[in-house]
Amino acid sequence: MEPGEALSTAAQIAVALAGFAGVVVVFRRESVHDWSPINKFRLRQLLTNSILPLAFCMIGLLLLTIRPVPADIRCWCSGAAFVILLLFGIGTVKVFRRFDLQELHRAGASRSVFYLTAAVGIAAMLLQLYNAALRNAFWPFFTAIGVQLIAAMFPFARMVLAP
């Protein structure tokens, strides 16, 4: 699969996930403002984990339109992904650490699942750094997009399956 085709497909998946989040919100009984802080956090995670891959795809597609295609295009994409994912990760951990353990337990949330997902995200970030510095390949950049989309599926499934 060519990079442009892979980025287009991932962008469509990201838009679909964000759109389904809106559908879930509409069909919930209570208003978003009445949701618990953890459910608001889950919604924010779902939307952010859908929007970031979409942004990465759009940046990649934009850079692919430059003719001739720059040799360092993958380094630029991975460098930008690293910085954005680092900022997103720091903000997410700060918010998550504010939740009380009993509050997480009542909401059916798990610190271990969060930290496992964070570890996979850190691995994807380090892969971006490696790609930007040494590798200059497409697959590490696309891995960051895939990790974000997979991370978006967890809060989406939780929101859909929650009573």
How is this structure best summarized?
This protein has 163 residues and is an all-alpha fold. Helices cover 82% and strands 0% of the residues.
How would you describe what is shown here?
This protein has helices at residues 3-27, 37-64, 73-97, 101-106, 111-135, 138-161. By secondary structure, it is mainly α. It has one domain (3-161). The N and C termini lie far apart (40 Å). The mean pLDDT is 87.
Name its key features.
single chain, 163 residues, mainly alpha, 82% helix, 0% strand
Question: How are the SSEs placed, and which strands pair?
Answer:
Blueprint: H1 3-27, H2 37-64, H3 73-97, H4 101-106, H5 111-135, H6 138-161
Helix pairs in contact: 1-2, 1-6, 2-3, 2-6, 3-5, 3-6, 5-6
**What's the total count of β strands?**
0
The major beta sheet can be summarized as:
none
| Number of distinct helices | 6
Roughly how many Å is the radius of gyration? 17 Å
The overall number of domains is: 1
User: Roughly what percent helix?
Assistant: over 70%
User: How confident overall, as mean pLDDT?
Assistant: 87
Low-confidence stretches: none
Structural class: mainly alpha
Q: Judging from the principal axes of the Cα atoms, what is the shape? A: globular
How far the N terminus sits from the C terminus, by CA atoms, comes to 40 Å
